[in-house]
Amino acid sequence: xxxxxxxxxxxxxxxxxxxxxxxxxxxxxxxxxxxxxxxxxxxxxxxxxxxxxxxxxxxxxxxxxxxxxxxxxxxxxxxxxxxxxxxxxxxxxxxxxxxxxxxxxxxxxxxxxxxxxxxxxxxxxxxxxxxxxxxxxxxxxxxxxxxxxxxxxxxxxxxxxxxxxxxxxxxxxxxxxxxxxxxxxxxxxxxxxxxxxxxxxxxxxxxxxxxxxxxxxxxxxxxxxxxxxxxxxxxxxxxxxxxxxxxxxxxxxxxxxxxxxxxxxxxxxxxxxxxxxxxxxxxx
Length: 284
Prior knowledge:
Elements: H1 10-13, H2 39-90, H3 123-134, E1 141-147, E2 152-158, E3 166-173, E4 178-186, E5 189-193, E6 199-200, E7 204-210, E8 216-223, E9 231-236, E10 243-249, E11 258-266, E12 273-283
Parallel strand pairs: 6-12
Antiparallel strand pairs: 1-2, 2-3, 3-4, 5-7, 7-10, 8-9, 8-11, 11-12
């Protein structure tokens, strides 16, 4: 029998023809699975992202450049605004208004006696003379002058180096601008009434507080020009802690219009003056 050769007609071979592998596939054409390739879309997205990143970088760089240009002048302008404000404020502080001494204003002082020629050009010397000749200290220990202003200040006086302090108040007074004592104070004796400068009559009522040996505080009423008192007495405060006191001290009619009220304590060992409070008073 003769063999029959298969027919190669177009109808039978159309579906069996192999594709032409020499031609490159189209970028937008379908893939081997029949779906369209997304290559073009991916490339476009990548390009867009790159462009956005570049634009953001440019914007940040420009903003930083503007910030630099703004902050730089600010630091250079600071000295020009501070300098003018400090100069005018220092000059007026060097001037202080001090009233000139008035002749006869020594009436506010308790020492020295204005009727004598005793005067002091040193505040510590005035405080020492007051402590010995007026207050009755024996060989006192004096501290340095502590100025309060250009015309007044304080000097501490102690019965011994480790004893309690009495503060002597001094001030320049009079036509010669010498140093005078206005009074004295101490932490252990506080006189509430009368106050400095008050007029007093006999008997004078005293109130305050004190800490002293057995609470005892001696009181003297003196007139100007005399060391001897015109009246004496005492008040009792606390012996262990500061306690209030009140009492009355009588005195004879003074011959001077002004004087001093003196309150003092004495040491338990030898009876020496320990602390002194002195205020200026007028006799009413």
